[in-house]
């Protein structure tokens, strides 16, 4: 059983060591880019909606407060049956156009419809339940030259989710400084139509990360910026599980779908970043499970000692939050992989937030 014990320890060392190493590696890179625009450029802001009647007023107000109104158009692409579109109409805002879908097919179809109807080259996609904490100019001012797409960093209404988010915010910024990140956020994804248009996007989930990756494959940078923070609302209970599974399965399929395209590209910087993220999301979670299993088989006493040390580490609030954030998400990624084998699910049951 010594072989199982050694294998289990090695797997756990790799599982925890590789993310820490990558975190420290990208953390040392700082984004150094200059604004492209001296005054606000015109933008088209797409808000896909499905039964957002309780949130849409706050969302639109947040968008209007974030950017000079004369330089924007807002396209609400709606498939609701709760009167969301009627609420938007009563607001009487001239910058808004409502595009009504005959039936709900999924976010990617709403996004593509919005892109087709967007009048401006700079397009922003944002979730209806996301709130921007900073002016939009903080992001779009970089959309030009070598920069093809920009996204935000994120926070949530959950301490556990934020502990996980804070780790990945640093990674997103570090990858952006190296060249590009393959993961964007639906709370705010901005891009240029002269680089990515609706015909470039397949009918899949993870439209935000697809835009980032396709932008990088075309040779342009896709970056997250630290001065644009967006807040998301995390569901609770079983809806939280569904939410994590949905997002995770889309991301899993995103990595498998684009791996060969990235490996065939000429950009060595982005290739290394994408492969590392593929490893972190697809392979690394299994090392945790196998490591625990091998340890239990190899030497139950050693396994028990490590379990006791883990419990002791929960005394520290920082360690407790890190463990609560990291370990459950590894199991969510495994479940998401299993679910992703069923195929692409585009129109999910709406979670309560």
Protein described:
It is built from 11 helices and 8 strands. The longest helix is centred in the C-terminal third of the chain and has 31 residues, at 268-298. The chain has 353 residues and is an alpha/beta fold. The protein has helices at residues 2-27, 56-65, 84-91, 107-117, 137-140, 159-178, 207-217, 238-264, 268-298, 300-313, 317-340; strands spanning 43-49, 72-78, 96-100, 122-125, 131-132, 147-156, 189-192, 221-232. It is globular, with a radius of gyration of 21 Å. Strands 3-2-1-4-7-6-8-5 form an 8-stranded mixed sheet, with helices on both faces. The model has no long low-confidence stretch (mean pLDDT 91). It has one domain (1-353): Spore Coat Polysaccharide Biosynthesis Protein SpsA, Chain A. It is 53% helix and 14% strand. One of its GO terms (molecular function) is glycosyltransferase activity. InterPro entries: Glyco_trans_2-like (IPR001173), Nucleotide-diphossugar_trans (IPR029044). This is Glycosyl transferase family 2. The chain crosses the membrane at residues 286-315. Residues 44-196 form the Glycosyltransferase 2-like domain.
